[in-house]
Amino acid sequence: MKELPDILDGDDEADMEIETVIKCGLDYSDYAKNTSLLTKELFESHFNEVLELVHYWSSSIGYLVLGAFILNTGSRLPDDVKVLILDAIDKDPYIGRSDKYQKARKEVLEDFRNKVTNYDSRHMIKIN
Question: Is 29 exposed, middle or buried (0-12, 13-18, 19+ CB in 10 A)?
Fold first, then answer.
């Protein structure tokens, strides 16, 4: 585990990231070498498919991963999806831990909350 957590830490997050990249028509090994392959245009053209995947996962983690992709690609963030992402931050499954990871995770989530709340799709935000 990394010294400082980020939104995409964890096995479920990694699985969701891989599935999202594949839904967007990319080979994950290519994407892992060059994340800029997932452009705003490509992500937005597969947004509904990705959103269906997130709904299928029915986990707050899916919405955190979705938010990370939206911010990292500079894609549009519909208001209803923003509400779901912000709600997922409150339901983060890692917050129940009683170690120093939890404190760092809370800081990361607060930073992510601020970025999502103030997000303007005219400006891409790298979060990890």
Answer: exposed
Amino acid at 54: V
Q: Do 45 and 73 meet the contact criterion of CB atoms below 8 Å apart?
A: no
Cβ contact 87:63 at 8 Å? yes
- Residue 64 · residue 7 · CB < 8 Å: yes
Question: Residue 20's pLDDT band (boundaries 50, 70, 90)?
Answer: very high
Q: What does the pLDDT look like over 75-89, one tens digit per residue?
A: 999 999 999 999 999
DSSP secondary structure string for all residues of 36-89:
GGS-HHHHHHTHHHHHHHHHHHTSHHHHHHHHHHHHHHT----HHHHHHHHHHH
Domain boundaries, the chain: 11-117
Q: What is the pLDDT of residues 31-67, one digit of tens each?
A: 999 999 999 999 999 999 999 999 998 788 899 999 9
Query: Contact 90/63 with Cβ under 8 angstroms?
Result: no
Inter-residue contact 44 to 76 (CB < 8 Å): yes
